[in-house]
Amino acid sequence: xxxxxxxxxxxxxxxxxxxxxxxxxxxxxxxxxxxxxxxxxxxxxxxxxxxxxxxxxxxxxxxxxxxxxxxxxxxxxxxxxxxxxxxxxxxxxxxxxxxxxxxxxxxxxxxxxxxxxxxxxxxxxxxxxxxxxxxxxxxx
Length: 140
What we know:
Layout (H helix, E strand, L loop, with lengths): L2 H14 L13 H16 L14 E4 L1 H4 L3 E12 L4 E11 L2 E10 L4 E5 H8 L13
Parallel strand pairs: 1-5
Antiparallel strand pairs: 2-3, 3-4, 4-5
């Protein structure tokens, strides 16, 4: 149950371990992380699916359930940047066409190639998967 959470935390910690030239997964610089996030959000704004940026160099994997569900991004504004353990976190104001409205969210950016971008809600859901898997299963 907690094993998935422990493995995920260990993977994130490992992503931030080591300086350039040492072992461990490299952490993106603030400029690299911001450029990857902007590339992802620009693709969403252009109406492309999250998978559209996966074949670029560096490879960018995005986990954003609203984007994947077909919500349409009208505009965005990156409002702040925070340094985390093995990641960069950006506060972003999203303005959606469909469904209409705006929302303040955070994106975590990890790694250099591939770059992994997680929306805060999706990352939290992934961490709590064992505690709240999103549906009940009948047992026989």
